[in-house]
Write a structure and sequence with these properties.
Layout: H1 2-27, H2 36-56, H3 59-81
Helix pairs in contact: 1-2, 2-3
Length: 82
């Protein structure tokens, strides 16, 4: 049980840091806001946070991160189709 909790906490921290890292790279103009790397960082971070918040019972945050993931997926599809 303790190992599962550690893995879950790792996913939560990892997801948050990946999302924040992507935002930091955008604000420092290291990445373009339309780059696939930025979108991938958002997507991976959101997936981790969705899993974490769902298992913690924080369903409002689960929905929020799901919407964030949906927006990211729409941006990826727009980028790939243009």
């Amino acid at each position: 049980m303790m190992k599962n909790q550690k893995c879950l906490n790792f996913l939560g921290w990892f997801g948050g840091l990946v999302c924040l890292g992507g935002y930091a790279l955008i604000t420092q103009q290291i990445l373009d806001s339309n780059s696939l790397i930025f979108f991938a960082m958002n997507g991976i971070g959101c997936l981790c946070l969705i899993y974490y918040t769902f298992h913690k019972g924080a369903f409002a945050n689960t929905v929020l991160n799901s919407v964030h993931l949906l927006i990211t997926l729409l941006a990826i599809s727009r980028r790939l189709l243009s």
